[in-house]
Amino acid sequence: MAFIAIDLGTSFIKGAILNLDTATIRHAHREPFPAALPGLPPLYKEVAPEAVLAAVDSLLAALIPCADAEGGLEGIVMCTQMHGLVLTTTTGEPRSNLTTWQDQRVLEPHPSGRGTYFDALVARLTADQIRQLGNEVRPGPPIGLLFMLAEQGRLPSPDLYLASLPDFVISHLSKTPPGIDTSNAMAHGALNLETLDWHHEVIAALGLERLRWPEIKKHGAVVGRLVVDGRAVPCYTPIGDYQAAILGSLLRYGELSLNISTGSQVSLLRPGPKFGDYQTRPFFDGRYLSAITHIPAGRALTALVRLFSELAEAQGLALSDPWGYIGRAAAAAGPTRMQANLAFFNSSCGDRGAFTDVREEELTIGHVFRAAFQNMTDNYYACARRISPDQEWESLVFSGGLAQRFPILRDLICDRFEAPFRMCPSAEDTLLGLMALALAFTGRAATVEQAAAHLFDVYRE
Length: 461
Fold this sequence. Notes:
CATH superfamily of the largest domain: ATPase, nucleotide binding domain
CATH class of the largest domain: Alpha Beta
Structural class: alpha+beta
CATH architecture of the largest domain: 2-Layer Sandwich
Mean pLDDT: 96
Number of domains: 2
Distance between the termini: 24 Å
């Protein structure tokens, strides 16, 4: 029997068959994530939910026959880009567009004239409430959009669910009310870490108490069933892609995770919640992650590639793969005096990027990207020391596409940390994390931690 795993990512919607008996990921497929709707104001980022459903349907159509060839479809596990919101009915019919984590409309001016809507939101909260929310109060999560609508007198009907993206998808496929797990409830911006329930005081303080917040489900709960050839296939609680990637890295105590992809994060596994100048996020089996997320990485590098490609593309010359040359040139450039700051957008490292100490002889692709990689390295080290000034880690774990692609970036990071490293055992870190969940959810492993330990042994051999 096989599982279907689906990752609703920012760039692609990926799917694959998980063979739990052999611990292998097979028949990987991907569909481009639908483009944002055109014509919206600059800070808005919305996607047609019907386009997401069509891409998921396409994946399922390709993967279900593959599951049949592996002995039959046993279940479906799913993870998602975080902070998505779809207003939906009890049977999963969308009543709004999908707003994504890139939506920043909460930074528009508040009508009071005292800053932005986000500033007004923060002013409603106490320091203790911000701590209970895991230090996750920032632009992007749905609670900011909902607060903005409340301030404008445009709150949605209380009959509609505030569904995360994967819960909307499962609700639509199974025609059941959407639930939500703790990772996606955290991504909504309204989870109380001390109770692992909705933070009702915060919700009331922001004027959002009449809305329909989904029931928080335990990991491993069956939240819907997809009918395939007359058989009801269980769909298990979906999780955030951040938790899936960390789980797929098979992170253990004493290791520091560096997940480097479109965005990047530094994370440390702890046996319980610990609060400080960083984010605190729920994990599995009662464990927690101390983390700093939204560190500039692939999105910032892609912005540089767009800049350097503009003249060629204006002449009709498409660059097939600039990344290979970038990696080689950055490695060959050697140390550079140029200083980079990749915070070209709102991030945990600021919102104003820059290049300084630029000399004519270093105005090359190699030196620019070497400076960019050095800035990423410095950011990771500073964030790690914020999480643990006493340096609770002994080694590093790399995951994510950029960590896989650029040996020079790994070398710079290891030199800065003066620590050994290992790579995530699979380039498909989120899918491997979903395999660990499937092992635990079906009782093949007693806990998620034991499932990850089993996969660590399998992939080490």
